[in-house]
Each structure stands twice: as structure tokens, then as C-alpha cells.
Amino acid sequence: MTGARHIHNIALIGFMGTGKSSVGRLVAEQLRFPLLDTDEMIEARARKSISEIFAQEGEARFREYEKEIVGELAGRQRTVICTGGGLGANEANLASLKEHALVVCLWASPEKIWERVRNQTHRPLLHDPDPMAKIRQLLAAREPCYKQADVLLSTELRSLKEVAAQVLHQFHTASAQSR
Ligand code: S3P
């Protein structure tokens, strides 16, 4: 962390099923900051669900929506930002988030991720004949980027509350240093 950064937001990045939304909610409540969810912003903009965007417009278009939203987030102050799993796996998105936010990556093993997402149906990337292999492959491809976050937090051995407390601690330290 350098003194040159102006950290007034928190951005949670990380793979599907790592608890970004739940942790984001807890952190936003504690800080009394608004919570923004990039997937919800995209759905509102496209007036379609994420699944419909993937099916009708394709993944590449979805990634463009993500880029647009990331650019707009630069104007936010005192906001907790929850991102879709692929957003923080893009170097340019990550660099943009770091300009105004402490970027925290939530982490879990492929096994844990699968355990958490297996009964959910709203993620088009996991509509795959072998979802476990898909998780492993995507996670391995994204890992180098995720690991460039300011903070990397395992969510396996901690409760959501403990993860949220860690995020808050890191944010207070980082924002005090960046003043
Ligand atoms: C995606 C993750 C999803 C959503 C979309 C693509 C990804 O968000 O943005 O289905 O590429 O990992 P969650 O991480 O909130 O599930």
C-alpha cells in the first residue's frame, strides 16, 4: 500500500460462491455505507437477468457491461462494491478499482466453492456437463489476477462475520494510511 492512493471505498472481488454478497452486506451495515452490486447494476441497465444476457448477447457483451460499470464506480465515495466473479479477474478492471477502493479478494478452494454453489442455478458459466472441472479451470486461470488484490482472505475457516471483521480492520488501516 502506498501513501499515494486515496482509498474511500471497498471492492470485494473473488470467485463465485466465495461470499462476496453476504460479506458485503455485513460490511456495508457496519460502516453505514451504501452497497452496490455490479451484477445488479448490469441487470438493471440491460433490463435482463445475467442468464438472459449470456444467452442472448453473449459473454463478451456481459464483460463490456462490467467494464462500463467499473469506469462509473470511480466517482463513488464511501461505498461497498460487490463484484461479479469475473470482474476482478480482469487486470484493467482491477487497476481501475484500486484507484479508489481497497480491493479485497475472498478466496475458497474449488471443493468448497462447488459445495456452496451446487444447488444454485443462476450462474451461466456453471451450466456445464462437468461444473467441478469448470470451476477448477476458471479458478486456475483467474488466480494470478485475483492475487493482485490488496488483501486476500480465505473464507474457509472463518464465519462470514469473521471475514467481515477482517475486511473492516483492513479498510480502517488502509484508509487511515491513505489520507
Ligand atoms: C461470473 C460470476 C457471477 C456473474 C456471472 C459471471 C463469473 O457473479 O457475474 O454469472 O464470471 O465468475 P457471482 O460471482 O456473484 O456469482
Brief digest:
With 179 residues, the protein is of the alpha/beta class. 53% of the residues lie in helices and 13% in strands. Strands 2-3-1-4-5 form a 5-stranded parallel beta sheet.
Protein model, in words:
- By secondary structure, the protein is an alpha/beta fold.
- It has one domain (9-177): Rossmann fold.
- Helices cover 53% and strands 13% of the residues.
- It has 8 helices and 5 strands.
- The chain has helices at residues 20-31, 38-46, 50-56, 59-73, 91-98, 110-117, 131-146, 160-178, and strands spanning 9-14, 35-37, 80-82, 101-107, 151-154.
- A 5-stranded parallel sheet has the order 2-3-1-4-5.
- Helix 1 packs across helix 8.
- The protein starts with 8 loop residues before the first strand and ends with a helix.
- The mean pLDDT is 95.
- Shikimate-3-phosphate is lined by residues 16, 20, 39, 50, 84-86, 123-125.
Domains (count): 1
The level-1 CATH class: Alpha Beta
Uncertain ranges: none
Mean pLDDT: 95
Question: Structural class, please?
Answer: alpha/beta
Q: Give the distance, in angstroms, between the N- and C-terminal Cα atoms.
A: 12 Å
Question: Over all CA atoms, what is the radius of gyration?
Answer: 16 Å
Strand-residue proportion: 5-15%
CATH superfamily grouping: P-loop containing nucleotide triphosphate hydrolases
